[in-house]
Amino acid sequence: MRMGKILKFAVCEVLQFVGLCVPLFIVMQRFAVIVAKVKDLAEPPGDSRTVYWLIVAVSVAYVTSIALFIWLPLKYMVFQKKKRPVALVYVILSTLPCFAFLIASSEVFIVINNNIKHDMFKEVPVSLVLFSLICMDMVERIRYLPGAAVPTSVPSAAGQHNIRTPNGVGVRQEPNGTVPLVSGLPGNSRRPFSISALSSHSDSIAAYHMPPYAYTGPLRFLCATDARADVLVDSFMFWMDTVEMVRCAGHPLVFYSGWVFPIYIFSYLSCLRVVVMPHSPLLSSLGVALQDLPFFFVRAGLIALFGFVSPVLYMMKNLLICLAFIYFNFMTKLNFFNTERMVL
């Protein structure tokens, strides 16, 4: 068992380190190629090979420096049970310089636009940067997750339900729909919670719904589930809007315009949400402030100027989430919209 934990720890650390280094090397190498082409097209032509290898050497020195002086000490402090923002450090050290060089690449291509066709390879580094960020997010959420099954509900003789929590603790549902104090729940310890809280993302990332009964038939093996698999799906859904926004910057009309700057800036700000834990109550507010609200205005501007370079579905999603956040958090507190007060 101890050997398995060591192997899991090594795999997680290697995946995170690869996700930190590989996007930087790919993006900076692509930027070096673009700058070398500019040198070849200049009058008189410059030494493109020297510029290329100089940028590559700078990228290697940067990755080596952050690995030795920031990443490894940070991991040591995390290993010593001293909490540090690993996700924030990753976003600052890897995602930020990658986005900066992607913006610089678009500006350099404006200079050589008449001589070289649109760079179709740019889709690879953009996808690689975001995929590495998603993998880092998944590793941070999975590495301490034991892989518990979804809580199930088994009817009792008294008409109540025995709830089995992800850690295997069995508790009985009270008539008012609440569950007594339970220890070992993810996110908090020994606090009252309700049935709806069990199935919410804030208390259990594994429980998307609460089945009314536990299936015990011949196909019960198909009902097996794992919280880690749910984390994989949830991580990709969490980042899908940001991925689609960055993809808009790859459109030729947008790529050579000034709209590249707000797209990458607001996309990077939305990446800062990874610092907040999935069960944090701040996640909803940050999602609206850093993603849905600015994304709505950016997409509205893009569609108005360039046509449907961004799907209308995502713009309607941003608008709906903003309106729902305002309504459920502010409007329902007014007497006119308070449906519970109206019923009473």
* Count of distinct structural domains: 2
Radius of gyration in whole Å, from Cα?
25 Å
* Sheet of most strands: 3 strands, antiparallel
Number of strands: 5
Elements, N to C (H/E): HHHHEEEEEHHHHHHH
Distance between the termini: 58 Å
Give the overall average pLDDT. Answer: 74
Helix-residue proportion: 55-70%
Gross morphology: globular
- What structural class do helix, strand and pairing data support? mainly alpha
Overview of this protein structure:
The chain has eleven helices and five strands, in the order ααααβββββααααααα. Mean pLDDT is 74; it is low at 147-212. The strands form two sheets. Strands 1-2-3 form a three-stranded antiparallel β-sheet, with no helix packed on it. A hairpin with a 5-residue loop joins β1 and β2. The protein has helices spanning 2-41, 48-79, 86-111, 123-142, 195-199, 227-248, 252-255, 260-271, 282-306, 312-329, 339-343, and strands at 152-155, 161-164, 170-172, 178-182, 191-194. The longest helix has 40 residues, at 2-41. With 344 residues, it is mainly alpha-helical. The chain has two domains: 2-145 and 228-332, no CATH class; 152-225, no CATH class. InterPro entries: Uncharacterised_FAM23-like_TM (IPR020394). It comes from Neogobius melanostomus.
